[in-house]
Amino acid sequence: GAGVSQSPSNKVTEKGKDVELRCDPISGHTALYWYRQSLGQGLEFLIYFQGNSAPDKSGLPSDRFSAERTGGSVSTLTIQRTQQEDSAVYLCASSLGTAWDEQYFGPGTRLTVT
Amino acid sequence: AQSVTQLDSQVPVFEEAPVELRCNYSSSVSVYLFWYVQYPNQGLQLLLKYLSGSTLVKGINGFEAEFNKSQTSFHLRKPSVHISDTAEYFCAVGGDTGRRALTFGSGTRLQVQP
Q1: Between chains, do B100 and A56 touch, taking CB under 8 Å as contact?
Q2: What is the CA radius of gyration of chain B?
Q3: pLDDT > 70? residue A1
Q4: How far is CA A90 from the centre of its chain?
Q5: Interface contact flag, A4 B44, Cβ < 8 Å
Q6: CB of A22 within 8 A of CB of A63?
């Protein structure tokens, strides 16, 4: 079956512009996660959705970052007024929603802020 | 708070040799431990996980890991590696009270040489 998909696969933007990154989870997965993978930093958790609500958004690095999920499916991560330090690969994962079940990761969106 | 340390950023090994990738964690609560693999230009894939029970966990592709509570370790092993095992390997911990996010280590690049 289809896995987690993310779009775009690559995004180059100028400093100060807003960007939207999209994640389509596996059908039927109620939990959705966003992570960021920076060079030399490993993976950092950003936000977790259960259905359409976000019980844990503790990883969002600043108020320029926001995310929403609609219909218990697609999620959008928005970065406003992008900065060069926002350059990273943004990964989305989804899972069935039971405790500590496997998270299935998408291929990521590589964001470059120039 | 939880943290994960992967002591080796790179591990070169010859084909058919055994390998061990080291992972140590820090946590004040019960832990759930995971190893993920990221092949070049692909998303992360779960290799194995420890939630409870037997401390020796077997995963896909011939990998196994042992949970050692006294040493707070979860090292990954394979008795004989193949060229196709060349990838980045991430150890992760979950279980932080009230949180569903995983905390990842910085990764170990396994380079299998012929």
Answers
A1: yes
A2: 14
A3: no
A4: 6
A5: no
A6: no
